[in-house]
Specification:
Layout lengths: L1 H19 L3 H9 L4 H35 L7 H12 L2 H29 L4
Amino acid sequence: MAISLNIGAYNTEIFRGGIESISKGQMEAGRSLGFSYAQTMAFIILPQAVRRMIPSFVNQLTHAIKDTSMLSVIGIAELTMVGQSIYAMNFRSFEILTMVGLFYFITIYTVSLISTKMERRFVIT
């Protein structure tokens, strides 16, 4: 719940900042074309804002993935804690923690690759 509230607060600010980064002239242009406020937001403002928000959202996602390992300290089972319980049974801590590190790396690297592809697809000009 704590991570959800934290992520929610950051994502709200990312969303707000993305919308505010779009020039006020875009809203005026949409309204002058006869679009309602909702249509202007949906068809003009948000598509531009989402392109600018993608890097921040992905950054926040990678932070969330990494922050879950800190929660293992207070008793919530996740990847690091599961690794600790496995090497407590067989005393092979180096191999187990190496695998845990590789899982984290693969997860975050995959998210980063997807982000890069999305950013290239939605190039801001």
